[in-house]
Specification:
The complex is a heterodimer of chains A (451) and B (336).
Chain A lengths: L2 H51 L2 H35 L1 H11 L1 H22 L6 H30 L5 E2 L5 E2 L3 H5 L4 H29 L5 H35 L1 H7 L6 E2 L3 E3 L2 E3 L2 E3 L2 E3 L2 H7 L5 E2 L13 H32 L6 H29 L2 E3 L3 E2 H4 L6 H28 L14
Antiparallel strand pairs in A: 1-2, 3-8, 4-7, 5-6, 9-10
Chain B lengths: L2 H31 L8 H11 L3 H18 L1 H10 L1 H21 L5 H30 L19 H28 L3 H32 L1 H8 L3 H19 L3 H23 L2 E3 L3 E2 H4 L3 H30 L9
Antiparallel strand pairs in B: 1-2
The chains are: A mainly alpha (451), B mainly alpha (336).
Chain lengths: 451, 336
């Protein structure tokens, strides 16, 4: 056995644990990243309104949310730190070969995250050190940096989907790397806008759901009504826009990653007049038990019932992603998104006609589950795009299996990450529940110094 | 200076900033760990918490900055180092998770058991994390990371005399910096007795750090001859500067000039790192991979340089604002 064989053996063994570890770390981080992108804007808006109107209830809400933001931002920051290690530790083949092409947006993200961390510190600890006006103004860099950071990270991911901004020589080495061009491939804008809106949906529905639960338990004071109203309004406004953006991104995927689109629809043979398939199981090149909407996919992609859609059969079997995972995740995202659109419509209609939150408990129940549902939809969306790109880590150029580290023992890292994230999740939930309940008093022996 | 050297220099500057700000931050946790029982250590812990509360997250972004600049500008060497040294790096990342989460969560819980658990987690990971980072530096500095993905030994690359020295020095330096920084914070908060206590801690850690540093030279001579030759040759002026700054810091502490002692202590610590860099120049990975060989293409380096310049224009005023805001005396409490 040559040295090269040994390396290959290690890499094969490491592929599944490394992918699982990456998926777990990303899937965990992205929920908190949503709060980093969207929550500052919602909190600062509430603080500003409270200050403008002299409304103590709004100010109190902003205060409570700022405390939660501190916890959520810390969770996002530490899980993001692990990711920045994992990109190199798990996928050195990607870094080694393409770091100079697509590492650049991460440098910009480094600065954005820096600015965000600085001004989160200023915002959380500056309530009494700055005038109310200066305090609100100091939040602007935090809001802008959160969104900018999301753009840079998503642009790196969009590059993996549609690699641009370099050439390969005959040996496959990168020449003529142009990092700015790499940042603005065809997927960057639709993916970023999709993620940006998703962050507002996840944050809006999740925060609203906390107050919906409170109201279901009989706490219907103005504090709880506003706590539901503000984030729910944000989410309800964003949701219909997101459906439109979904159409945009589906078309970009169809143009640039036809195999991924075919997997999303479990569409095997290239054909015209393709139906839109919901659910079902893809076995031996055939989707069974699915509900079909005639001409749906052709209409969606080409806005023409006879449009031709390439199928999975266009590429060899070893270049196809795991179809069922991608198809069902995609269906889950669209299904939940549609349900959230209905909820947003219900809320919007009642608000437009009556200027109040719908009275029925069923509405509150729906809002109470909408937060988790929105987060699940976002995770399903990321599963769609990430698993849908497989077996490639850089679409069409570098296989995930060729990028993974062959280091011995790497698989144990997965076990460790599972343990660490289980503990972290448990404590995060405990702490957030305590914050949601409020009325937290310090234990006498741990009293904070009176200053 | 070549383009690659400028970019690597910027990453190195980030590393120095991380050692100073992140280091003092870790050190705060070390003193939290050594503060004694719940009641006895209460004031020390409160001071540490107040001092690092608003700044800890920013302090640790320096590390992210170093990582992303290295992986973009020096992708191959970066991939080689992180795959060979993945064990201490993963452990350090876990330490940062435990530390950051525990610190942020501790404020939001009230039950003594829970607070004590988070406190212990914060304090213990503050000790272990810099040790692993020091071990990583030791692995690179002693030439145990060959070029190539996971080409080095994943165990002996960080379980070796130089790594052990690096880890120990890292923890000591963190504790020393925190003690010096906290002297001024305590005095400003009107807690003169705490300032005295941290002054004593600074003296003790300075003495221990100096002794370990001197002994470490012997370790390097035996275990990392290339680095030793560099340090004793080209790097000697920097090593002497570090020692002189260390002595000056002791004198300043003795006469209670805390603000100046901070600056001079930072200089002493920075000089240790500069010594390492000078000792290893022009190699990124000893004994064979030079900066120029490891550097990526010109377009990427130029883009990096532009980003670093623009970024610095945004970053430096923001950092100054952050630190001056929270170094100003006021009786105000944070959000809670």
């Amino acid at each position: 056995m040559t040295a090269l064989d040994l390396v290959a053996a290690g890499a094969v063994e490491n592929l599944l644990p490394a992918r699982t570890q990456m998926a777990l770390s990303l899937g965990w981080h992205i929920v908190f990243a949503c709060f980093g992108i969207a929550f500052p804007a919602i909190v600062v808006f509430t603080e500003w309104r409270g200050h403008r109107r002299g409304d103590p209830v709004l100010t109190e809400l902003a205060h409570t949310w700022a405390k939660a933001m501190g916890v959520l931002f810390a969770a996002g920051a530490v899980s993001g730190t692990l990711l920045s290690f994992e990109l190199g530790i798990l996928w050195p083949g990607l870094m080694d070969r393409f770091g100079e092409v697509f590492g650049f947006p991460f440098v910009l993200e480094g600065f954005a995250f820096f600015v965000e961390a600085i001004f989160v510190g200023v915002y959380l600890f500056g309530w009494n050190r700055l005038s109310p006006r200066a305090h609100v103004l100091s939040a602007i860099p935090m809001v802008v940096a959160g969104v900018a950071g999301a753009f840079f990270v998503v642009s790196a991911n969009a590059w993996m989907n549609n690699p641009t901004g370099f050439r390969l020589d005959e040996q496959g080495n990168v020449v003529d790397a142009r990092p700015w061009a790499a940042m603005f491939g065809p997927s960057t804008w639709p993916q970023f806008v999709h993620m940006w809106l998703a962050a507002f949906m996840v944050t809006g529905f999740l925060v609203a759901s906390v107050y919906a639960v409170g109201m279901l338990r009989g706490r219907r004071d103005r504090y709880h009504r506003l706590g539901l109203l503000i984030p729910l309004t944000v989410a309800a406004v964003v949701t219909p826009v997101q459906i439109g953006v979904g159409d945009w991104i589906a078309n970009v995927v169809a143009d640039n990653q036809p195999t991924k689109l075919a997997a999303m629809e479990a569409h095997h043979e290239t054909s015209a007049g393709v139906p839109l398939s919901l659910g079902g199981i893809y076995v031996d090149g055939e989707l069974r038990y699915a509900v079909e909407i005639p001409y749906g996919l052709s209409l969606l992609i080409h806005h023409d019932p006879d449009g031709v859609v390439p199928g999975l059969a266009e590429v060899p079997a070893d270049e196809r992603p795991p179809v069922n995972v991608v198809h069902l995740a995609y269906n889950a995202m669209v299904g939940i998104g549609s349900a959230l659109l209905l909820l947003a419509g219900w809320f919007g209609l009642v608000w437009w006609r009556r200027r109040r939150i719908p009275h029925t408990r069923w509405f509150l129940r729906a809002v109470a589950v909408s937060g988790v549902a929105a987060a699940v939809a976002m995770e399903a969306g990321w599963i769609t795009t990430e698993v849908g790109r497989q077996p490639w880590i850089v679409y069409g150029i570098l296989r995930t299996a060729d990028a993974v580290s062959p280091a011995p023992g790497l698989g144990y890292g997965l076990v460790a990450v599972v343990v660490v994230y289980t503990v972290l999740t448990a404590f995060t939930v405990v702490v957030l529940r305590r914050l949601a309940r409020g009325h937290d008093t310090l234990a006498p022996q741990e009293r904070v110094e009176a200053s | 200076m070549t383009l690659a050297e400028v970019v690597l220099g910027a990453a190195f500057l980030g590393l120095v900033a991380y050692a100073l700000f992140g280091g003092a931050d870790f050190g705060g946790g070390v003193w939290d760990l050594l503060a004694g029982g719940t009641e006895r250590g209460r004031r020390v812990r409160a001071l540490v918490e107040r001092s690092i509360g608003p700044v800890w997250e920013a302090n640790h972004v320096w590390l992210i900055f170093v990582l992303v600049v290295l992986w973009t500008g020096f992708s191959g060497a970066f991939a080689a180092a992180v795959t060979t040294l993945y064990l201490p790096l993963t452990l350090a990342a876990f330490g940062m998770i435990a530390r950051g989460a525990a610190f942020a969560y501790r404020k939001s819980v009230s039950t003594p058991g829970m607070r004590r658990f988070f406190g212990a987690s914060f304090a213990l990971s503050s000790l272990l994390t810099p040790f692993f980072f020091g071990a990583v530096v030791g692995g690179v500095a002693s030439g145990r990371v060959p070029p190539g993905i996971a080409a080095g030994d994943v165990i002996t690359s960080w379980v070796n005399p130089t790594s052990f020295l690096g880890g120990t020095l890292a923890v000591l330096v963190c504790a020393y910096l925190a003690a010096v920084f906290l002297c001024a914070d305590a005095r400003r908060a009107g807690e003169a007795d705490l300032a005295e206590a941290f002054r004593l801690r600074a003296f003790v850690t300075a003495a221990v750090t100096g002794t370990v540093g001197l002994g470490g030279i012997l370790v390097l001579r035996a275990d990392a001859p290339l680095l030793y030759a560099g340090l004793m040759g080209r790097g000697l002026p920097v090593v002497l500067l570090s020692a002189a700054a260390g002595v000056a810091a002791i004198v300043l502490l003795a006469v209670r000039r805390y603000a100046l002692a901070r600056v001079v202590s930072a200089l002493a610590v920075a000089a240790i790192l500069v010594g390492w860099a000078v000792g290893q120049y022009p190699y990124v990975l000893l004994p064979g991979l030079t900066i120029e060989q490891a550097a990526q293409g010109r377009t990427t380096m130029t883009a990096l340089l532009v980003a670093l310049g623009v970024g610095a224009v945004v970053l430096v005023p923001s950092l100054v604002f952050l630190y001056t805001l929270f170094q100003r005396p006021t009786g105000a409490d944070p959000v809670d």
